[in-house]
Structures are given as C-alpha cells and as structure tokens.
Amino acid sequence: MKLQFDIVIVGAGPAGLAAAQAAAASGAAIAVIDDNPHAGGQIWRGGPQHSGDARAAQLWAELKQAKNVCFFHRAKVLLPSAPGALLVETPDAALTLHYAKLILATGARERLLPFPGWTVPGVFGAGGIQALVKGGFPVAGKRIVVAGSGPLLLAVAATLKERGAQVVAIVEQASLPRVARFALALLATPGKLLQAIRLRRQLAGIPYHMHSHVLRAEGDEHLTQVLLQIGSRQRTIACDYLACGFGLIPNTETAGALGCTIADGAVWVDRWQQTSVADVYCAGESTGIGGVDLALVEGRIAGLSALGDLAQAAPHIASRRRWQLFAARLANAFRLGEELRHLADLDTIVCRCEDVRHGDLQQQSSWRSAKLHTRCGMGPCQGRVCGGATDFLYGWTQDSVRVPLTPARISSLVAMQDEAR
Ligand SMILES: Cc1cc2nc3c(=O)[nH]c(=O)nc-3n(C[C@H](O)[C@H](O)[C@H](O)COP(=O)(O)OP(=O)(O)OC[C@H]3O[C@@H](n4cnc5c(N)ncnc54)[C@H](O)[C@@H]3O)c2cc1C
User: Fold this and answer.
1) Degrees to nearest 5, angle at CA 407 with 118 and 99
2) What pLDDT, on a 0 to 100 scale, did the predictor assign at position 321?
3) What is the pLDDT of residues 53-99, one digit of tens each?
4) What percent of the chain has pLDDT over 90?
5) Confidence at 420, pLDDT banded by 50, 70, 90
6) Pocket residues for ligand 1 (CB within 6 Å)?
C-alpha cells in the first residue's frame, strides 16, 4: 500500500513526538512510525499518558487532538525503497510511505560489554530488564545487582525497587571525583538536580560503589553470583539477576541506510537538525546521547526546520546549547575506563548471534575483516549488540549498513518488488 505524507517521522520517543507537535500546527500531513506498541520511546515506554511526566502527557494530548498526525505503531522501517520513500512493515501489512521531508528520531540503545559469564541466563542489559519490567516481567523478591555506568543505572534500580526487587548493589565504573564533579555541575540544571535527589532518596540504603565494575557472572543453568571489583578489592555477591549496561550508543542504522553522514558514532546534523542528505532531518539521541530535555528541544527544531520555519526554530537554539553542555558533562563524567577493555578472556563470546569469541576477534584488524573471517555481526542483530563492544574493545567502526534493517517477512519484500513494477 502506498501512502503520501508531507513529513514522515521515524521514532515516537520524546524527539519524534516533539517534532510532530512542532510541525502539526502547520496542518501538514504527518506520519509517525515506531516499532513499539506504544508511543513514548525508551523513557516513556508504555505510553506518554501513563509516564507520570506532565510534559509527556501534554505532548500526547495535543498530538491526539491533531487530525493531521497519523501514528503507525508496531511499524518498523525496513529500507529506503526509492528516493523519498520508506518500506515499512506493520504486523499485518507492508506499506510504502512517501515523504517530502523525513525526520529521523530513532534514539539510542545501551552498550553491552562482554565479560566472563555475561551469557549466563539471569544476566540482562540494564535498560533491557527495565523495559521487560515495565512490560510486566516480575522481579518482586529477586536479588538484583545493577552494574555498568551512567545515570541510567539509577533509573533502572529505582524501577526495579519500585516493582519489589531487592537491589543489592549499584556498581558504577566512574570514579568518585568524576561522579562528584558531575553531581555538583547539576546546579546548572535544577530540574536534573531535583531528579537526582529524588532518585537518591528512592535508593537510600542501597550501596552505590564507584570506581567498581563486574568481573564475572557465575552459575550454570542460571546466575547465582557475581564477582565484582569494588575499588581495590574483589567481592562476590549472591544474586538472582545482574542488570548491566555501559552507557548508551546512538541508533544510526536508518540514517546510514539513507546515506546520511555518521560522525563519531552519531548522525551528523547542522544547526537546523538537517543531515547531510537533502530533506532528511535527525533529532534526539540518534545525533548523540544527551537525555530527554535535549531530545525534546532537538525534536522541536527539526519539526520547525522541516516546515522551513527557521524563524520559529531559532529561539530554541539557546536551549539546545544548554542541554548540549549538559550532555558533554555527562559524557566526560561517565566515559568508560581502560580496565573495562580487559574484562573478556579469550573464550568470552563477543558476538552472541554467531558465537564469535574474543580470542577469534583479537586477530582481526577491522570490523570488515572480522565479518569476513568470523561472521561477527552477521546474525539477526546485525551488529547492534556486538558493534557497541567491538567499537570500544578494538576501535572498529562499522562501515556499512545492510538492508533490510531488521528481519523482515518475505511478503513485505515481495510487495515492494510488485510496487516497483
Ligand atoms: C534502554 C534505555 C532505557 C532508558 N531508560 C531511561 C529512563 O528510565 N530514564 C531516563 O531519563 N532516560 C532513559 N533513557 C534515555 C532516554 O531514552 C533518552 O533520554 C530519551 O528518551 C531519548 O529520546 P529519543 O526520542 O531520542 O529516543 P527514544 O526514546 O529511544 O525513541 C526512539 C524510538 O524510535 C524507535 N525506532 C528506532 N528505529 C526505528 C525503526 N527503524 N523503525 C521504527 N521505529 C524505530 C525506537 O523503538 C524508539 O521507540 C533510556 C535509554 C535507553 C536506550
């Protein structure tokens, strides 16, 4: 089925929703596509109206009123099928969405790093378990260690505690001075400071170890304990689950498939959130990790720029600068330490789809040579999981994007061929 819109937005997280809201007042025909069942992205998963965030509820209420904004949930972009067109797969159809302007707001995912035992059942990504729990996965009474790096660990621990889990420790790799400097700098962003205070209160009594990291997850059929490096000492903690994530990395695949320039692992954009490809804009964490406030303001600028309304977009630039400075402080405080490069041993699996081990990859010189010789990154996730690790461990850049971007039904690809005829 072919559908025509003035603006197509990929991603219904804060950036995509803000872009849609900014553009909606013009009366332009707008489509918002997201592969989740609800709008809201990662932070407002389950729906903006249920998030408890007044900004989210307001955005959603306005967008629901707008007659010119059409949402496609559970819809994933498979590939750019022609200039100005995307092939999108929904649970029951393949659609070709034609656009005059495209806004990519595809967000970020968490970075997972391999360590001995990270494939043992019971070890989760930190954001991964949070998403599962928000979807109903029961954790009440479970002993959980939360480890890795970044403020997401605190948000995850709070969600787990709220759902009845016993969070036994939060293990942060960044050092005390760096975390303390970051906390002090929160004075420049009072909203974030309040959020941090609220989180710390919620997590009172849970040990927060800095300059610490996971060394090994242990258990045969299921995780039973984790070995941690806590400062200069090693300590074993018994637990049912380990939730482990080392910060976030931008989702750049859709932009890459369209030929947009990717720089330093994020989609390159100019002052108006325009990518290197004409009529394609990008906003939110796909342009760099910066949190919800930066995603919202970038979304607004992208929505207005896509309309050509630069006069309305310009006043938001100062606010974006403020949140970009926050993002820079965040990146500096939680940059990953050298010791994390040495967690994996030769037998540790790095590419889980194709069972490729650290020992096999150490002999390779690039992402391309690793793919050719070991099949690393060639499984169903197409490097979404191991790519974040190989980038950090070996300094490899993924130099190409293969389409379809996600596993697709044959009927969707056939439908595209039929349309092209
Ligand atoms: C796992 C995870 C958990 C997080 N939890 C929190 C939290 O608890 N608290 C907090 O403050 N911050 C959290 N964050 C950070 C938060 O996501 C950002 O601050 C902010 O929401 C980014 O907004 P965004 O619109 O750029 O991206 P997102 O919110 O990530 O939205 C992007 C959306 O695009 C969709 N998408 C991507 N590619 C495609 C495609 N090809 N086809 C269709 N849809 C697509 C994604 O499924 C997603 O719904 C989390 C981040 C991650 C990765």
Assistant:
1) 125
2) 98
3) 999 999 999 999 999 999 999 999 999 999 999 999 999 999 999 99
4) 95
5) low
6) 10-16, 33-36, 41-43, 76-77, 105-110, 127, 130-131, 152, 155, 248, 251, 254, 284-285, 291-292, 295, 405
Cβ neighbors of 302 (< 8 A, separation 6 or more) are 15, 19, 22, 103, 105, 272, 273, 281, 282, 283
Summarised one tens digit per residue, pLDDT across range 319-373 is 999 999 999 999 999 999 999 999 999 999 999 999 999 999 999 999 999 999 9
Range 258-270 average pLDDT: 97
| Per-residue pLDDT at 267 exceeds 70 | yes
CA of 35 to the centre of ligand 1 (A): 11
Closest CA to 383 of 247, 244, 253: 253
pLDDT, tens digit, for every residue of 164-180?
A: 999 999 999 999 999 99
129 CA → ligand 1 middle, Å: 14
Closest Cα to atom 27 of ligand 1 = 107
Average of pLDDT values for 233-241? 98
Can you tell me the distance from the alpha carbon of 238 to that of 249, in angstroms, rounded to the nearest whole number? 30
Phi, psi (degrees; rounded to nearest 5) at 252: -115, 5
- Domains of the chain and CATH, by start: 2-109+249-330 (3.50.50.60), 112-246 (3.50.50.60), 344-421 (no CATH)
Q: What share of the chain is helix, strand, coil (3-state, %, to 5)?
A: 40, 25, 40
Burial class (CB in 10 A: 0-12, 13-18, 19+), 162: exposed
If phi > 0 it is left, if psi is from -120 to 50 it is alpha, else beta; for residue 219 that is left
Mutate to test the pocket of ligand 1, among 36, 86, 106 (most ligand atoms within 8 A of CB): 106
Q: Which atom of ligand 1 is nearest to the CA of 291?
A: 19
Q: How far is the CA of 354 from the centre of ligand 1 (A)?
A: 26
Confidence of residue 399 (pLDDT cuts 50, 70, 90): confident
The 8-class DSSP code of residue 274 comes to: B
Q: Which atom of ligand 1 is nearest to the CA of 159?
A: 8
Tell me how far apart the alpha carbons of residues 278 and 235 are, in angstroms, rounded to a whole number: 54
Q: What is the pTM of this model?
A: 0.95
- Cα of 12 to ligand 1 centre, how many Å? 9
Q: Work out which ligand 1 atom sits closest to the CA atom of 126.
A: 1
14, 15, 319, 343: which is closest to 149 by C-alpha?
343
Q: 382 CA distance to ligand 1 centroid (A)? A: 19
Lowest-confidence pick of 11-25, 118-132, 402-416? 402-416
